[in-house]
Design a protein that fits this description.
about 100 residues, alpha+beta, Aminopeptidase, 4-stranded antiparallel sheet, 2 helices, about 30% helix, about 25% strand
Amino acid sequence: MIHTILSQDIPQIVLLSNAKRRAYSHAQPHFWKMAENSDQIQEKYFAEEIKNPNVVALCYENNLGFIIGKIISPPDVYNSGLTLVVDDFCVVSDDLWLSIGKK
């Protein structure tokens, strides 16, 4: 079951995001280098994002995965109306991409 991210989901979402950044840092250590207090920064960021009416923030049951995106107007070169720019997403383990990752 998918639900809107609530404030009580944020600590687990931060843990998932941290694990993703650590895994990615093996391939791109400079880009994915985390600040010492990155979890606290991200927790505050997510808390503000879920209050924004232009943000779509969803998580899968038991916080096995999440996706956060912002509804924006595209640049003037496009005539497509509003669009969703995905900011962050992950699942708790790679074997879930073909199941909950597709939802």
